[in-house]
Amino acid sequence: MEEKLLKGKPVTEAVYERVAQNLAHLKKLGVQPKLTVILVGEDPASQVYVRRKGKACEKLGILSDTIILPAAISEQELLDKIELLNNDPLNHGILVQLPLPKHIDEDKVILAVSPQKDVDCFHPQNVGLLVSGKPYMLPCTPAGIVEILKFYQIETQGKDVVVVGRSNIVGKPMVNLLLQKRKSANATVTVVHSRTQDISTHIQRADIVIAAIGQPNFIKKEDLKKGSVVIDVGINRVDADNEKGYKLAGDVDFEDVFETVSRITPVPGGVGPMTIAMLMQNTITAAAAQNKIKLPLD
């Protein structure tokens, strides 16, 4: 069983080793990278994510600050906070934790973050650079998936990849990363989504399936080609007879597909840790770029 699992932990450790070396280089030149996370309201899942990001910064020696704002804060007050951080030369990365309260326009907030400090790679300028093949920053979860594929030596060049889901956070940037003219990409990519007719037909021809549709156990063994590689991005709560009353499940029915696939990411413990690892890398990248420093390890 173990040889089939694409675990995120060893990949995360490899990324952190690279980050640590680049961080040491920056500190030697007098630059202390700093990430600021803005959390609006008291969403429990968001609070957990933010704490994990803070712990990762602390572990690596990256300065971090978390600004917690009340859910009732006005849109303009939030935009003013972001502008202060944009103008602070000692702050290199800004992350506004989504989702935001309904009275705040997320698009306005994304546009307000300086593209140079946009460690989520959500700003249209950074999205455009990614699409054009000249990225400044890489979107965290898709970049983490590429790191997993590279670490486990899973070939993407010329392979048929199906991305299930078209979100701005995973699906769309994943497609653009895998289409790049580089060794760890060069794939033939198909996107399927909620309006695709007969999704299974598309998935069945894929060498690699990346599932990010947000529906627990959506993909079954009959949907997959024998020997395919599955990257499961989904983290869904499903009812369970345990102390918590729930368990985490991916978008792929892990137990059902296990004998069919050649490799698969577990949920939890697969893609999840990589998102924060790539956020740390983006913070280092941003700090170096803002100080016009070339990093020793790309």
Structure notes:
It is globular, with a radius of gyration of 19 Å. By secondary structure, it is of the alpha/beta class. α1 packs parallel to α10 (272-290) and α2 (44-60) crosses α10 (272-290). The protein is built from 10 helices and 10 strands.
Brief sketch in words of this structure:
The protein has helices spanning 8-28, 44-60, 75-86, 106-112, 124-131, 140-151, 171-178, 199-203, 254-257, 272-290; strands at 34-40, 63-69, 93-96, 160-164, 188-192, 208-211, 229-232, 236-239, 246-249, 263-264. It has 298 residues and is an alpha/beta fold. The chain has 2 domains: 29-116, Leucine Dehydrogenase, chain A, domain 1 (Rossmann fold, 3-Layer(aba) Sandwich); 140-271, Rossmann fold.
Topology:
Layout: H1 8-28, E1 34-40, H2 44-60, E2 63-69, H3 75-86, E3 93-96, H4 106-112, H5 124-131, H6 140-151, E4 160-164, H7 171-178, E5 188-192, H8 199-203, E6 208-211, E7 229-232, E8 236-239, E9 246-249, H9 254-257, E10 263-264, H10 272-290
Parallel strand pairs: 1-2, 1-3, 4-5, 4-6, 6-7, 7-10
Antiparallel strand pairs: 8-9
Helix pairs in contact: 1-10, 2-10, 6-7, 6-10
